[in-house]
Amino acid sequence: MSPDTLSPQPALHLHALRFAYATGGEAVRGVSLDIAPGSVHCLVGRSGCGKTSVLKLAAGLLVPQHGQVLCHGDPVIGPRADMGFVFQRPTLLEWLSVLDNVLLPISLQRPVRSSDRDMAAQLLTRMGLGAHVQHNPQALSGGQQSRVALARALMGEPKILCMDEPFAALDAITREELQHDLLVLCAQQGTSVLFVTHDMAEAVYLGDQVTVMHQGQMVHTLRIDLPRPRAHGVRHSAEFNAVCAQLRQCMDEGL
Amino acid sequence: MRHTRLLSVMLGLLCLGLWELAVQQLTTSALVLPAPTVIASSLWRGLGNGYLWPHVLQTLSEVGLGLLLGGTLGFAGGVALGESARLRGVLMPYVVLSQVVPKLALAPLFIVWFGFGTLPTVVMTALICFFPLLENTATCMQQVDAHRLELFRMLRATPWQTLWRLKIPAGLPHIMAGLRVAMVLAWVGAVVGEFIGGSKGLGALIIAAQGSMDTPLMFAVLVLITVLGLLSYSGVQALERRLSPASFSL
């Protein structure tokens, strides 16, 4: 799905957001962006540039002091059922099995049905974790734990997924596999993604748009016109490297 | 490991043997230090003719009631103090104050208030059991990983769900450690309570045996208290193994 399928209503609309933590200066200074349904929007920038704050504002975990967030036209005033969040760390509960971890979003809202179990098992199987459904999450590798966290976020079939550097702690090969899995699963469910990362190659591979942030502001937004679906090989193409170089230049200019 | 345990048992037996030998060789009076065999026969007789059992039951019920009362209040108080910073600020100084006062020194007062018998001892036991559970529960409520709390917020969990499905399961090892300490202290509370205000129970029996200069019986009761203490401690450990955090996944 292309990002410029002009939809009358963006999946997520951030308008002139400003946010300051009680303890420090302004972390977000006038951020506005639209995410088209089914597209992936990446935020890149150095540590402390405010990208995670923007993500939390979008997810309703923080409330902006100015501006507003609209999800399919509805104001976001707190966490919502149709939004998922994947944290930097897998944040799994070690006293629950892998399956029960994935079912957590459901079991907190209503009794779990057998169809929910089937769906969770199916998601895990699709991620290559079919054999680990009943295992304890501590028995899994870092990459596998990240997959479980992704499956948990996708469990409620969210329309929008907010991701905070979810693959940053993984080795390069596992990271590339997970990026690929993410794109496949989101394309299947038609999920829109707001993805925070500091890895430019990751942003270019995943994103339809990449926004560079600096000191709480958006300094550049690049459209990534690489064809979809994106195969692993695309990372080695001249086009890909050209976009990465362009992005790098944008980041340097932002300083 | 098995080897170490064998050595440990042998060391105990060796000590008992030396004790027995020393008492016989030095012809120490049984009033001062009775031989292990004398203590054992006193214990055997007391258990056999049913003399000790009512006292065992009395102390067991005081320990049980005191632990239940103090443990429940300590756990509930710990949850409340852990959840509310304001409550913590207001109440914590008084909780600490109540623990700094030597509780054994309160025993005469409890006799004035609650009379002689079971009640003052149960109250004292409860007061001693209260603090370890309160402290441990309150601490682990506050130490929950911030990322997990954010996850539960994102999943729109109610405060009640966050408590029962995140904070308590995550803090269970700490809470159980508090219960283990409370279990050991419960025996101290009950026995000392009986020293002061009881006419029945193992603590009262030690005082009575002292009065009649029956030192072997004093030792026999001491052995009984130790064995019961060990058994109840193992009971808590068994509960700990059964009660995994997963028991809270509704």
Tell me which protein chains meet in the greatest interface and how many residues each side has: A-B, 21 and 22 residues
The CATH H-level homologous superfamily of the largest domain in chain A = P-loop containing nucleotide triphosphate hydrolases
Q: Count every helix of chain B, treating DSSP H or I runs of 4 or more residues as helices.
A: 10
Helix content of chain B: over 70%
Q: What class would the helix/strand composition of chain A place it in?
A: alpha/beta
User: What are the secondary-structure elements of chain B, in order, as H or E?
Assistant: HHHHHHHHHH
Instruction: Give the end-to-end Cα distance of chain A, rounded to a whole number of Å.
Output: 33 Å
Q: How many β-strand stretches of chain A? A: 10
Determine and state the CATH class of chain B: Mainly Alpha
**Mean pLDDT across residues of chain A:** 89
CATH class of the largest domain in chain A: Alpha Beta
Put the structure in a nutshell.
Chain A has helices at residues 51-59, 98-107, 114-126, 142-155, 172-189, 200-206, 238-254, and strands spanning 12-20, 26-35, 40-44, 66-71, 74-75, 83-86, 160-164, 192-197, 209-214, 217-223. Chain A has 255 residues and is α/β, with parallel strands linked by helices.
Strand and helix layout:
The complex is a heterodimer of chains A (255) and B (250).
Chain A (H helix, E strand, L loop, with lengths): L11 E9 L5 E10 L4 E5 L6 H9 L6 E6 L2 E2 L7 E4 L11 H10 L6 H13 L15 H14 L4 E5 L7 H18 L2 E6 L2 H7 L2 E6 L2 E7 L14 H17 L1
Parallel strand pairs in A: 3-8, 3-9, 6-7, 7-8
Antiparallel strand pairs in A: 1-2, 1-4, 4-5, 9-10
Helix pairs in contact in A: 2-3, 2-4, 3-4, 4-5, 6-7
Chain B lengths: L1 H25 L9 H13 L4 H31 L1 H16 L6 H8 L3 H25 L3 H9 L4 H39 L4 H10 L3 H28 L8
Helix pairs in contact in B: 2-10, 3-4, 3-6, 3-8, 3-9, 5-6, 6-8, 8-9, 8-10, 9-10
Description of the molecule:
The complex is a heterodimer of chains A (255) and B (250). Chain A has a six-stranded mixed beta sheet with strand order 6-7-8-3-9-10, with helices on both faces. In chain A, strands 2-1-4-5 form a four-stranded antiparallel beta sheet, with helices on one face. Chain A has helices at 51-59, 98-107, 114-126, 142-155, 172-189, 200-206, 238-254, and strands at 12-20, 26-35, 40-44, 66-71, 74-75, 83-86, 160-164, 192-197, 209-214, 217-223. With 255 residues, chain A is α/β, with parallel strands linked by helices. Chain A is globular, with a radius of gyration of 18 Å. Chain A has two domains: 7-82 and 161-255, Rossmann fold, CATH 3.40.50.300; 91-157. Chain A contains seven helices and ten strands. Chain B is an all-alpha fold and 250 residues long. Chain B has one domain (55-242): MetI-like fold, CATH 1.10.3720. Helix content of chain B is 82%, strand content 0%. In chain B, helix 2 packs across helix 10 (215-242), helix 3 (53-83) runs antiparallel to helix 4 and helix 8 (159-197) packs antiparallel against helix 10. The A-B interface holds A 59, 61, 78-81, 84-85, 87-89, 91, 93, 95-96, 100, 104-105, 107-109 and B 145, 147-148, 150-157, 161, 165-166, 169-170, 244-246, 248-250.
